[in-house]
Structure formats: C-alpha cells, structure tokens
Amino acid sequence: MARPRVLITGITGMVGSHLADFLLEKTDWDIHGMCRWRSPMDNLGHIAHRINAGDRVFLHYGDLRDTMSIREVVAKAKPDYVFHLAAQSFPRTSFDAPLDTMDTNVQGTVRVLDALKEHAPKAVIHVCASSEVFGRVPKEKLPIDEECSFHPASPYAISKVGTDLVGRFYAEAYGMTVMTTRMFTHTGPRRGDVFAESTFAKQIAMIERNLIPPVVKVGNLQSLRTVADVRDAVRAYYMLVTVNPVAGAYYNIGGIHSCTVGDILNTLKSFSPLKDDIKVEVDPDRLRPIDADLQVPNTAKFEKHTGWKPEIPYEKTLRDLLDYWRERIANEGDRFLTR
Fold first, then answer.
1. CB 254, CB 189: distance < 8 Å
2. Are residues 326 and 265 in the same domain?
3. Total structural domains in the chain?
C-alpha cells in the first residue's frame, strides 16, 4: 500500500520546516515541499541528506504568483494532505508592498486551491490564515473566539482575511475538505529576524559576541501577545487534518502565556549574562502605522474538537530561540544585519 503523500507549501519557512521534522518523526508519509527557486534553504539543512537521497522528502519549485508552476507542483505531488503555509508573512512589510502581499496571499491561495480542485479534489487541506485578521479588538471581546468580527490593522491582515474566506468558500462551493486556522503568535528556533521576538534574540546574541553596541532596537513594546511554541503549532496542524477533519471548519489556535512584547524582551534579556548592560532604544522604522495590540485567543473550539493542548513552556520557547541565534551568530558572525 502506497504511503500517504503530503504537500507543504512554504516548507523552507520556520513553520514548514518544523512541520516536515514532525511528519518525518511521527508518520510514514512522503513529504512534498514547495519552495521558490531563490528560497533560502537554511531551515532544511539538517535534512538535506534525506532530500538529496529522495528519502521521503521531495522539493518542487513553485511560486504563489505563478499559476502554471502551482498547477505543476500539485500535479506532481498528488497529495492526500496539504498544508498551505506559504505567504508574504510579515505585517510590517505589507505596508510597503501591499499589492505583492495581496497577490501572494489571496490570489496565491486561489491558485493553490484551484489546482487542488483539479488534481487532488479529495485531499484534506489546511489553509493557514492568521490571528491578525481580528486586528484591533476591544478589551471586552477578549479572549478572541472564532466569531469575533474582523478588524484588520495592516495590508497583511486584510490579505489573511481574504485567505481565510477563500478557504472556506472552496469548502462550501466545491465540496473540498478545506479548513482554515487563525494561529496566534508562535515562535521558536528558525523564526525570521523580521519578527519582534526574533530580532530581539538576534540582537542580544550579536551583543554577546561584541558585534554591535549593547543596545536592542525595538518597535511597539506595549502590544499584548499570547505566545505559543512553533513545535506545538505544527502538532496542532497535524491533528487538524487527521482528527475528524470537518470541511469548512475554522479554528483559533494559540498558546496560554499572555504578555506584552516588552515582557518578551525582558525575558530574553534575563537569559543573557550581559542583561544589566543591555539598553533599549525605540526605532521609528520598527513601528507600524497601526497595530493589532490585543492578541489573546480563545482556543476552546479547537481543543474540544482535537484534544490538542500546548505543551512547551514559554521560557523554553524563548530560551531555544535565543540559543538558535547564538549558534547562528557564532557560526556566521558579522554577515548579519541587525534588522
């Protein structure tokens, strides 16, 4: 009997690479990953030997803005399961590149689902939206449940509203098993350095190596976030598609530790032997024109359906993130920008 086949769009990202790790360890599935020809492969380096040998991991080149390439990837992969994770995923960048963000995230999702409708109509599909769809939520609506109204606070968030609705539309209109998730803040090793907690960790690691002055540049430290570990997130995604999947369902997923972005910075600083010497400086370029400042999820619906619970403690998540950057800085040193 043939092994199940899974397609992960965005396999080279933080979440996609951790999902590949999880599936290699916990399943016997063949993993087909979609990436752009210019995508950095750093996050897959530890499984390069398997990719090179064709040992359960196969890469296909495609771009969410190129319909032909998407159709070719799906036709080759012939997936039983799909995790559509690829996106322009950085909210701050979306203010500078709104049209690219919309095309990649909204029309890109249409291209993926249209190709699946033709080549893999029976696949179980996860479309990854974002908690950013809720945007600016009044305090009386916390914690945020699935029926909270959308009030997106960035072009990225608007694009993820489109992604969410497109996924649900394909389930209802074409009978496809598509589910959407609104994952709240999730981080850990391999987190991109454009995200707040990761750039904090990276700057601290660079300070420890005496590569930059002992000043961490920051944006808005007052935003409230609920932090989950990326390794808990990918376990949730696996359970989403394997535990009684419901076509058209949509879920909030997130952690249990709520704190401000400033608290995250203070936790990371506390892990450093130089904590008393590190100063903090607001960089205007790191501020968004408006911010989704209250991001606290109600995850009861997903937990009741699947039995999933976050397991990795907040402190371990942040310590592992800092150690990830320490290792990278030690090995690659001053080639990094402090963005």
1. no
2. yes
3. 2
175, 287: one domain: no
Same domain, 27 and 57: yes
d(CA 229, CA 189): 9
The predicted-structure confidence for 89-126, as pLDDT tens digits, reads as follows 999 999 999 999 999 999 999 999 999 999 999 999 99
Place of tokens 């419901």: 246
Residues 291 and 159 in one domain: no
User: Are 125 and 104 part of one and the same domain?
Assistant: yes
Contacts of 240 (CB under 8 A, 6+ apart): 126, 179, 181, 251, 302, 306
- State the DSSP H helix or E strand holding residue 288, giving kind and residue range, or none if neither: none
Mean pLDDT for 172-180 is: 98
The token pair at 21 is: 């790790």
- 333 pLDDT higher than 80: no
On whether both 143 and 220 belong to a single domain, the answer is: no
CA-CA-CA-CA torsion sign (307, 314, 86, 44): negative
| Cβ atoms of residues 263 and 185 within 8 Å | no
Q: What integer pLDDT is reported at residue 337 of this predicted model?
A: 75
| Interval 28-73: pLDDT, tens | 999 999 999 999 999 999 999 999 999 999 999 999 999 999 999 9
Q: Which residue has the tokens 């897959």?
A: 44
83 and 24: one domain? yes
Band of residue 336 on the pLDDT scale cut at 50, 70, 90: confident
Residue 34 sits in a domain whose CATH number is 3.40.50.720
- Domain residues for 324? 196-225+257-295+313-335
